Amino acid sequence: MARKEPAADAANPGRLKQIALTYKMTRKADKKIGLVLAGVGIVVFGVLLGIGFLIGHPIYLGILGLLLAFLATAIVFGRRAERAAFGQMEGQPGAAAAVLDNIGRGWTTTPAVAMNRNQDVVHRAVGKAGIVLVAEGNPNRVKSLLAAEKKKMNRIVADVPVHDLIVGTGEGQVELKKLRTTMLKLPRVLSGPQVTVTNDRLRALGDLMSNMPLPKGPMPKGMRMPRGGNPRQR
């Protein structure tokens, strides 16, 4: 027990420091965050305290109001901090991958499964909804990336539904802050074992591509790969 108490005491300053840092980052994008939080806390506490005086139990309702005020303030702070974070991430390369990494249990994400020289990119997530391809970049360019990746998925796992989403603010696109919610609303059509099998098949494909033998150096002009496989093995 003596060892756990110092560890818990050391963790508390770390949490407080993290909360303070989150507040500072949120305040840069949301100047009214302090007034909003104070207003929420005062209103909730005032309402419960007023009810306490009306029914003759101001102490009990005051304590309950204090706890509920703290809870309401924490909820509002979390939502506004999340909104501010998404606002700062919007349009940044890799923002969609960061959201996918925190989508929750039951999903396996693979960032940058397809990319072009303009840094338009497609990420892949596998869950009970099937395979979800999430693209970020120029809407006109990523469509070809999505089409090619979707065609490959349909060829490898034809029995698994494949969804495609484009992150953005235009028509037919999904805003970054709504990406997680949109994916969680997709109908669940696969069981846990089916998700595992799908991940194994996609992982095996990746291993096959990474382990494929390639000749070192440039290939001479006019040279063709023999049908029997790698010429180095002969």
Automatic annotation (TrEMBL):
Feature: compositional bias, Low complexity: 211-234
Organism: Streptomyces ardesiacus
InterPro entries: DUF4191
Lineage of origin: Bacteria, Bacillati, Actinomycetota, Actinomycetes, Kitasatosporales
Annotated transmembrane regions: 33-53, 59-78
Name used for this protein in its record: DUF4191 domain-containing protein
Region (Disordered): 208-234
Keyword Transmembrane: yes
Keywords linked to the UniProt accession: Membrane, Transmembrane, Transmembrane helix
